[in-house]
Amino acid sequence: MIELFWIGGPFFMVPLLIASIAVLTVAIERIRSFRAATTDYDDFLEEMTSTIASDGISAGVDLADQIPGPVAATWSVGLQSARQPLQIIREKMDSTAIAEIQRLERFLPLVSVVAQVAPLIGILGTVWGMIDAFEGMAGGLATGVGVNGEIIADGIGRALTTTAAGLAVAIPATLLYHWFSHKVDLFIDDIDRSRADLIEILSRLTPRKATRPAARATETAQ
What we know:
The protein has 222 residues and is mainly α. The protein is 90% helix and 0% strand. The protein is built from eight helices and no strands. Helix 2 (10-37) packs antiparallel against helix 7. It starts with a helix and ends with a helix.
């Protein structure tokens, strides 16, 4: 590996090495973050619904605060605003959902950039190596010395090595980016479901509170 590094040339191989380390670091960090934020939504919904029904909204807030992840954070904000109109609850939950999604997408643009730029660095190294090879060939022919096979071999070796290194970095980065994006999409689906379910629960609770004064007014009139 070290020999290939020097064949490709530090000018091209160092950026690719740094990019590969960056992608690996982001992959480890994102996998840990996604694992910590993952929640079985069906179990979460059942537990939250039963808690709110038996112990009230405040107990639901306490339970949501104890559960990590974007879904629980969205529920916590919605439940804390339960006394507000449903439109305000939706807006607050949407703001929290956007912040949570941005947190999930953290560092993903870096992986995307590496996936796109690494092959270009490899191609640049390829072109540079071929230029060196042809310059060596032209120089030898111009001076009458003949073709220097060593110079040509070095140029072609650099071209092939940088191309292979660029692809070796870009392919895993591309796969990781799409896999992470898919995971984020799954989180977004759960967040959308959670917002709809919580609004439905709160809409069932709100009319009960609102109809009590009207019922008392009717009794007084009679």
